[in-house]
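hi!! sorry for the late reply, been swamped w classes. u asked for the two structures so here they r. pasted raw, havent cleaned anything up. first the sequence of the first protein and right below it the tokens
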Amino acid sequence: MPHYKLMYFNLRGYGEGPRLLLHYAGVPFEDVRVTFEEWPKLKAKMPFRQLPVLEVDGRQIAQSAAICRYLGRQFSKYLVPKCPIEEAMVDAVHDAHKDFQYEIRDYLLISEGFAQGDKDEKVKMLKDVVLPAANKYFGYLRGLLIKSDGTHLVGKTLTWADIVIADNLHSITIIIPTLFDGQPEIKKYVDGILQIPAIKKYIEERPETPF
């Protein structure tokens, strides 16, 4: 079995998807949580001067989406559809989720203290940016759930994108508790994924960190 070493900050963020996939598969790995003090010395050693980075027997893979796709295919017996078109659809769904993350990124950074912004600015951003982006995105997800079995986004089996997206949406609801208001299908979908035993166990035991 390859030796996996995942490097990211002591946050969930873009590193939590790979952590979840490795825990779900029951694969041992080094979970290296880089401090902000350590980061300047490590930065030049990273392929794109960013984290997360996954080392596989010493070879580096950068970019969170690439890491998740790699891990999903490594564990393809569980997490990648056999149909090439459905496999591409899984990639597309994850890319769409990253678009949504980018749309609401500023609000999350301000909420968690990583960027400056006052209360009035947050209220305006929530109303004018975050909730419209969420309503648009959840409309896409509802359409996918209708086409599948209602419990997965693509096909009728669990994929790596289900795990990554459901946990990330759950993390966002910690910051925005009203995110799923009026979205029963989305809440049911997320709750169902998070009840999978291996995922539930990891979430219950993982370190408490900022988003």
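now the second protein. again sequence first, tokens right under
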Amino acid sequence: MSQSLAHTMKLMVSLLVVILGVFASFSLSAHGVDEDTKQFLILNEGVSILPFIYIGAKHMVTGYDHLLFLVGVIFFLFRGKDVLLYVSLFTLGHSITLLFGVLSDIQINAYLIDAIIGFSIVYKGFDNLGGFKRLFGFQPNTKLAVMIFGLFHGFGLATKIQEFNLPQEGLVPNILAFNVGVEVGQFLALGVVLILMSFWRRHRSYLKFSTAANTLLMSAGMMLVGFQLTGYFTG
């Protein structure tokens, strides 16, 4: 076994361990909120632009379900303009439903919406494996799928914010600031992912292990779906 191959296999195993550890740490919740953030959201009154930008950025960086989906989206995108296009579609989708969901006070069960988000990860991994063409003989519109799943991811963000019953005073600027923070966090996290993937793509093992990587992605999504549905039916 070559050194490059051994290194890649070690990387895959390490990634699996990290994903399993994250799921174990957060249990049924897809978005852990630390105690300090909880207290701030509960006690905050009025406009607080910078704190909400920070909270939004932190929420996205630690939102492993969103990041796993984005990893699937960009896995086979090798041109910068394609990455920008697909990420922009995802951003547009989750921005619309985040703002609309909170400002219109649309209530959706958090377990169910997070289960759909988990399914989006399964979907993207399956799509990357060519599952639709092999099993069903057609290829869904990938851009439309990213946009639609972005809408569901936005509702996932909205349900988390709604748990804290934010006061109406300053709600609009605070939610806009939170959304800006989400985009900042997404940009930073995605930047790190792209740097790591760019190094991996220099090796032949990238395409060789693409099946294993996307199977792992599907497995993580299935675990998330299972956790959330368990919480829904037993909670």
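hope this helps!! also noticed smth abt the second:
Confidence is low (pLDDT under 50) at residues 23-30.
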